[in-house]
Amino acid sequence: MLANFAKEHNLILPENFPSKIQEFCKLLLEANKTTNLVSKNDEQKLLTRHVADSLIFATHPVNAGSRLIVPLHWTDIGSGAGFPVIPLCLYFPQIKFYATESRKKRCDFLKLVKQNLNLMNLEVIQGKAENCGLKNMDFVSCRAVGSLDEDFEKAKKILKKGGHFLTVKSRRLIDEMKARNNKLLKQAKIMDYRLPGEDMEYIFLNFAIGELLL
């Protein structure tokens, strides 16, 4: 199901991606016994619900075409159990990722994953992204953190001109924002998608800060 999802979105998974992701999921399930990283109901759906949802961040703009200038620095806000940052580290080994997380136990878990998966392109930072001294990021991502407006303000503080803020929200939430005539939403490029084996619709949002990288 994960492979079909990737193919549907024109993503070519690196050769080592399946084995590394399996190793990551094993580490997560073991750590989840003592640290609340994901809900117990989600333990059997890590690949289809969490890994697939993380890969949606790889569809745009890094993968948009040959004319794209590949970014060098990417910050993930509130990385938690490692989604989307760990799958993205594996998908884009040429990009430097910063996983920011305020909770120590989750940072410890992310450092364990970094060590076990040999993720040389990942730096784990304990604290809030906007207070960690990070600047001039090419990309900032977040998944299930705060409201869209709150997350955008955090991202804007650390993005460079021409950078992109990428996030995902449920279609229901986006429809409610449209009904309220949310001004921020009008600035986003949006893409609808569904996760493997689920009926719920989601929206992938891409905000460009100033000039686009294209």
General description of the model:
- The protein has 214 residues and is an alpha/beta fold.
- It has a single domain, classed as Rossmann fold (3-Layer(aba) Sandwich).
- It has 7 helices and 7 strands, in the order αααβαβαββαβαββ.
- The chain has helices at residues 2-8, 17-31, 46-55, 85-91, 104-117, 148-158, 171-179; strands at 73-77, 96-101, 122-126, 137-143, 159-170, 189-194, 201-208.
- A 7-stranded mixed β-sheet has the order 3-2-1-4-5-7-6, with helices on both faces.
- α2 (17-31) runs antiparallel to α4 and α2 (17-31) packs antiparallel against α5 (104-117).
- The chain is globular and about 45 Å long.
- The protein starts with a helix and ends in a 6-residue tail after the last strand.
Largest sheet: 7 strands, mixed
| Number of E strands | 7
Q: N- to C-terminal separation?
A: 32 Å
Helix segment count? Answer: 7
Number of domains: 1
The CATH class turns out to be Alpha Beta
Morphology call: globular
Topology of this protein?
Elements: H1 2-8, H2 17-31, H3 46-55, E1 73-77, H4 85-91, E2 96-101, H5 104-117, E3 122-126, E4 137-143, H6 148-158, E5 159-170, H7 171-179, E6 189-194, E7 201-208
Parallel strand pairs: 1-2, 1-4, 2-3, 4-5
Antiparallel strand pairs: 5-7, 6-7
Q: What are the salient characteristics of this protein?
A:
214 residues, alpha/beta, 34% helix, seven-stranded mixed beta sheet, 23% strand, globular, Rossmann fold, 7 strands
